[in-house]
Design brief:
25% of the residues lie in helices and 23% in strands. It is α/β, with parallel strands linked by helices and 270 residues long. It has one domain: Metallo-dependent phosphatases (Purple Acid Phosphatase, chain A, domain 2, 4-Layer Sandwich). Helix 1 runs parallel beside helix 2. Bound molecules: fe (ii) ion. Fe (ii) ion (FE2) binds next to loops.
Length: 270
């Protein structure tokens, strides 16, 4: 199978570029399954029902979230209706929505997507490793699932890398999100799981992690907030990770993807 994971969509710039490019990307890369992290899609903070629909209509199969899941209150209701939108699995019991989705791709392949939040330099939540373990045991790769994608939404590179090794041999792809900067460590781990510490964002890189530079610079230099964070509105670079799996569901190839905007362009060759 050919899988594509696109990193955190930040504001209008990221959304517009993703919605414009995803249909052709799906065709050109002959993608079987696409996951998009949408937790910063609405003005940098959360996701709305409309934006969720726009990203799904453009060709995403599943949308994942993160620490900004509920910044737009309507997501609490929408996630109960829309099974293709998932939130971190290690939120408290009783949280609306689901932390994993088990769906059929257009090809008929069964795909499990799991979203978890890291705990290092982040909110105190349930253990992400326990949450992932539960999902992997319930739906083993090569038996119940033809592909498994884990979105580890976390601050610390160490915690994300640990999750990669924790899942090695049991997932098709473990990819980090949240830091909005693509890391240069795409690799197939020894057990066959594709891994990249952070996918990067779909947003304007003439910014501070997707936000207009002025307010972050002001806060770093003066420590006095003087306004709201606003997404930067220049042309977005779409950042993601492309994975090709073999029949076992393990990865034979992983490549970074970077399209448009300011970063060096990278597209996998088929
Ligand atoms: Fe985040």
């Amino acid at each position: 199978m050919r899988l594509l994971f696109m990193g955190d969509v930040v504001g209008r710039s990221g959304r517009d570029a993703l919605v414009a490019e995803l249909p052709s990307l799906r065709r050109e890369l002959a993608l079987d399954f696409v996951v998009v992290n949408g937790e910063n899609a609405a003005g940098g903070f959360g996701i709305t029902a409309q934006i969720c629909n726009d990203i799904l209509d453009a060709g995403a199969d599943i949308i994942t979230l993160g620490n900004h899941s509920w910044d737009q209150r309507e997501a609490l209701v929408h996630i109960e209706r829309e099974t293709r939108l998932i939130r971190p699995a290690n939120y408290p019991a009783g949280t609306p929505g689901r932390g994993a989705a088990f769906v059929e791709a257009q090809s008929g392949a069964r795909v499990l997507v799991v979203n978890v939040l890291g705990r290092v330099f982040m909110e105190a939540l349930g253990c992400p490793f326990e949450a992932v373990e539960r999902e992997l045991v319930a739906c083993p790769l090569g038996e119940a699932a033809d592909a498994i994608i884990i979105d580890m939404h976390a601050e610390a590179t160490s915690e994300k890398m640990a999750m990669g090794h924790f899942c090695d041999g049991r997932a098709s792809l473990v990819v980090g999100t949240h830091s909005h900067i693509p890391t240069a460590d795409a690799q197939v781990l020894p057990g066959g799981t594709a891994y990249q510490t952070d996918a990067g964002m779909c947003g304007d890189y003439n910014s501070v992690i997707g936000m207009d530079k002025d307010e972050p610079l002001n806060r770093f230099t003066t420590r006095i907030p003087s306004g709201r964070f606003q997404p930067a509105l220049g042309p977005a670079t779409l950042c993601g990770v492309f994975v090709e799996t073999e029949a076992s569901g393990l990865a034979k190839r992983v490549e970074p993807v970077r399209i448009g905007g300011r970063l060096k362009q990278v597209l996998p060759e088929l």
